[in-house]
Design goal:
Layout: H1 6-15, E1 45-49, H2 54-71, E2 75-79, H3 83-93, E3 99-103, H4 104-112, H5 131-136, E4 138-139, E5 142-143, E6 146-158, H6 159-164, H7 176-186, E7 192-196, H8 200-209, H9 226-241, E8 244-246, H10 255-260, E9 264-270, H11 273-280, E10 286-289, E11 299-308, H12 315-325, H13 328-338, H14 348-354, H15 359-363, E12 368-369, H16 377-388, H17 396-411
Helix pairs in contact: 1-2, 1-12, 2-13, 8-9, 16-17
Amino acid sequence: MPRITRAAAISLAAATLLTVTACSGGFSSESPTPITSESANKNPVTVLIGSSGDAETTSVKTAVAAWSAKSGIPAEVKVASDLTQQATQGFAGGKPDDLLYVSTDQFAGWAKNGSLEAYGDQLPNKSDFYPGLVSAFSYDGKFYCAPKDFSTLALVINTDMWSDAGLTDADVPTTWDQLEAVAKKLTKGKRVGLAFSPEIARVGVFMAQAGGGLLSADGKAQANAQPNVDALTYVQKLLKEGVAAFSSDLGAGWGGEAFGKKQAAMVIEGNWITGAMTSTYPSVKYTVAELPAGTQKGTLQFTNCWGIAADADNKAGALSLVEFLTTTEQQLTFAKDFGVMPSVKSAAEQYKTDNPTMVPFINGAEYAQNLPSMPGAADVLKDFNSQLTGLKSKDPKTILDSTQTNLQAIAG
């Protein structure tokens, strides 16, 4: 696919600073008029991030420094020890950082209380973002902030255990029946065929595959809809048969640990597992496949956005920086530097070429669901997760009825 040079990308980003309203410094709700970098606010742009480690910190700082050198606008990257706390304090004090990582569980609350600027619809590459990611960062009909990258869930398979069980590439499951069958063949002694964490962020894939999900297409609560009952009933069957187990019941903190310790032959996990396998369990050989379908394909996605504070000192500068950070080339650089998946469709083919083992994860973007993220959703999901730990012995419909009541209170 066509690639542009980093210098060209920076030049383009710096030249496309968008309008700020004359009266307040915020973005105009009317048709914006582009402004030049010469007339833009030259106040420093501060960027607050929650980093996964040195690789991410270095990569973001390098990108921001390159944009700053070209645009002439000073910029500083701050690594938060507790991003939510530090961001909330900045918002409350009227002195927030201009640009910051915003997670889906914080997004709706900050959008609702006016902490974030709704700038997404002004991005020239708006149509390049995956629709599901745009939906994740839309509130009250407005696209607020650019998704910076994302992750999905897929099926991770221990290839040695797979071969030892007499399974071949032709046996990689594409349906629930096939998943159950291979899980039985892979279960041996204390090792289970399949493991995953006891939480909606893993079990929810089965709800999506059954044609369900906690919310309907129009955002209404549907936790106890029949597809969701079918999904939890299927998961319960696997647990009772002993061919699947929650990672916590295996003594593991998450699916990746259970997989790395060879407590499970398959796990449902996100693309972040590749880093853990390389650093902690380098001797374990594995492959990745898309999750099998129930009545349809389904997975979950997780993402953050580049939020611009409503009280930022330099909104135009922050927006120009976002435009650069979300270019195809820069997203591919981030993917190479610290393992994330690009949030723009234009980067997909090159990403697949560069990362062939990750193809199943990025393919999931076409059908991935978001978890509820409206104000109050975190408490509802926490309660749901606590009930899921007892799924093996509890009635799935009873669990979902309780969740429906809680979810209706915040979603309708």
